[in-house]
Amino acid sequence: MKILYFAWLREKAGTAEEEVAPPASVRTVGDLIAWLSARSPGHAAAFADLSTVRCAVNQDFAGPETPIAPGDEVAFFPPVTGG
Amino acid sequence: MARVVVQEAPFDTAAELARLTAGRTDVGGIGLFLGVVRDAAGGRPITAMTLEHYPGMTERALSAIAAEAEARWPLLGCTLIHRVGRLVPGEPIVLVATASAHRAAALDSCAFLIDWLKTKAPFWKREEFRDGGAAWVAARAEDDAAAARWLAPRRAAAE
Fold it and tell me: Which of A36, B51, B54, B62 sits a CA distance of 20 to 30 A from B84?
């Protein structure tokens, strides 16, 4: 599973992209966030305030209940500020 | 089919408008929004901003937003160009242009597109301040409100 981080989530996590293999018990985006948060203090900091974290699964906006599967591309980022 | 472009380079607004109407005479009006980098954020002067985006999803999101506009209004052409990378105040950052037979569709769809782009396309701005330091721009509630006004545009027509 490919994980991408953008903007300040990338800075806090300390990586723009990582390949991970979470256990089968990690079934949703919410599960994944909890699992990733335990990887490093940086990851924990990135996910400390989930009200400012948005997510996409396979390039579609997703929520904490969205299911995930091996091979998915999951991205985490702040609320968008383009335009 | 909309023209969707994400690029670092500046764009040529006149050339983009000419392209929208090239080879056709049924266009009665073009709605245009040109976003420009402002020199201050909340009263604090900025020297530059850097636009980060999510390659792949960005184009996908912009195309989906354009398709929504094409479904809601009788458009004869639609162009969305968003720049990324480091930009300084005064530089154009985003172009939205819509062509239609009549002005209402052109103007309304143009406003819709920039409102939705601001809340549904994966871009992030990081501002560099003249007094030192830099910060990621936080999303604004006003932008969410502006986007929300387009959520039920057909209700009035259906009633």
Answer: A36
